[in-house]
Design goal:
Chain B: This is Na+/H+ antiporter subunit G. Chain B: Keywords: Membrane, Transmembrane, Transmembrane helix. Chain B: One of its GO terms (molecular function) is sodium:proton antiporter activity. Chain B: Pfam families: PhaG_MnhG_YufB. Chain B: InterPro entries: PhaG_MnhG_YufB (IPR005133). The complex is a heterodimer of chains A (314) and B (97). By secondary structure, chain A is mainly α. Chain A has two domains: 80 residues; 186 residues, no CATH class. Chain A starts with a helix and ends with a strand. By secondary structure, chain B is an all-alpha fold. Chain B has one domain. The chains are: A mainly alpha (314), B mainly alpha (97). Chains A and B meet through helix 8 of A and helix 3 of B.
Chain lengths: 314, 97
């Protein structure tokens, strides 16, 4: 048994243990911490499978931003948890357990029944990399070969932010999302919020730029930018923009908007919807990705900031 | 040259692993939040520092080496800030949020 096998076995056992613990533990807060650790371990597994793009996304979303969303939810639920005496009865709990076990079993069977050489389009994706001028096959698939999926995924992000904003009360509609954060302006958090964002912004843009030829891309870079913005907001150095802000809304639709604009251009001047002219494929893709970087950063940060809570004086 | 580099790597990464182990034992065994934080930050700062030091001879290029060092510096910055924040909220006796 080689050292890699030992490492992988330990990692798999750790992930399974963390998953069980996250489900079994009673306090919401502990379950959230377990889930964040679980996300980071799953990211390590993706690294082991040479899927660095997926690992980056899993670490940023599953471990990072998703963890913050759940922590915020846990903090809000803390007050209600002790008063909620009502627990689901035995039948409901047994039913939920049976349903979950059936889904897990079905997934396990599906994976075990896969043909030995799983059907894959990976060689085709690598072979046609020259068509776009980008060397990272993942970016090629996301932005060119299956560009439609990515464009619609960005629309889903937009729908998610509309859903979060819809939770606002009538008075706060169009106001600033989330509570106002007050922190000591000379404190540690404000210090970090001044020191880290320049570094984080460079890293976020670098991840986007390097995504053309190496693992990385708009989503991972956007997650880094979003966390930098949130850090500044939490330290009280900046406030969230009001949801009615025209500039903010422009940024929110910039990514999918430009994507569809280029797609329609392909329909008018090229072969099909989202067909890039070969000569300009790379600049077009990088342009869309830059717009998407801003959209993703703004959307993720605002998803975490929550529904508008404070009305703006008009 | 690469032989000496390998020796540095083995010694240094082992030292890093030792500090992580000691830090984890401290995290589990120490009685209160402040001493546990002390154990944790030692593991992060020194353990990660030694691991990065040990990986430097294996770095393919100067750029990779600089990336490793900046990862360590960023972890130092984040660890120092977060431990300050946790310690402050622990001393005020409020909930850790």
């Amino acid at each position: 048994m080689s050292i890699t096998t030992v490492f992988e076995s330990v990692l798999a056992a750790l992930v399974l243990g963390l998953a069980l613990w996250t489900i079994a533990v009673r306090e919401t807060y502990s379950a959230t911490v377990g889930f964040v650790a679980y996300g980071l371990m799953v990211a390590l597994i993706w690294v082991g499978l040479d899927a660095i793009d997926v690992a980056l996304t899993e670490a940023a979303i599953g471990g990072g931003l998703g963890g913050i969303v759940l922590l915020g939810a846990a903090a809000r639920l803390r007050d209600t948890e002790s008063t909620a005496a009502e627990t689901p009865n035995r039948m409901v709990r047994l039913g939920a357990a049976a349903l979950s076990a059936a889904i897990a079993a079905a997934l396990a069977i599906a994976i075990l029944l896969l043909p030995d050489a799983a059907p894959t389009l990976a060689p085709a994706a690598v072979a046609n990399a020259a068509a776009t001028g980008l060397a990272n096959p993942v970016t090629n698939v996301l932005m060119a070969f299956r560009g439609m999926d990515t464009a619609l995924e960005k629309v889903v992000l937009l729908l998610a932010i509309v859903g979060v904003w819809s939770l606002a009360s009538d008075q706060a509609w169009g106001g600033r999302p989330g509570p106002h954060h007050e922190a000591d302006p000379n404190g540690v958090l404000a210090f970090l919020a001044r020191l880290l964002p320049p570094v984080g912004i460079v890293i976020g843009v670098y991840i986007l730029w390097t995504g053309a030829d190496h693992p990385g891309g708009a989503f991972q870079g956007g997650a880094v930018l979003a966390s930098m913005w949130l850090l500044v907001i939490m330290a009280g150095l900046a406030d969230t923009p009001p949801a009615s802000s025209r500039r903010l809304r422009l940024v929110l639709v910039a990514g999918p908007g430009l994507f569809f604009l280029v797609g329609l251009g392909g329909l008018c001047f090229g072969a099909a919807f989202l067909a890039y002219p070969i000569a300009h494929a790379k600049p077009l893709i990088l342009g869309i990705e830059t717009a998407m970087l801003l959209t993703i950063a703004a959307t993720l940060a605002l998803l975490l900031a929550g529904a508008p809570e404070r009305s703006v004086p008009r | 040259m690469s032989y000496a580099g390998d020796i540095v790597t083995i010694a240094s990464v082992s030292a890093g692993a030792f500090f992580f182990l000691a830090g984890t034992v401290g995290l589990l065994r120490f009685p209160d939040t402040l001493t546990r934080l002390h154990a944790l930050t030692k593991a992060d700062n020194l353990g990660l520092g030694f691991v990065v030091l040990g990986l430097l001879p294996q770095a393919a290029s100067l750029r990779d080496g600089l990336k490793l060092i900046s990862i360590w510096l960023l972890a130092l910055l984040a660890g120092a800030t977060v431990s300050q924040l946790i310690a402050r909220s622990a001393r005020q006796g409020g909930p850790a949020r």
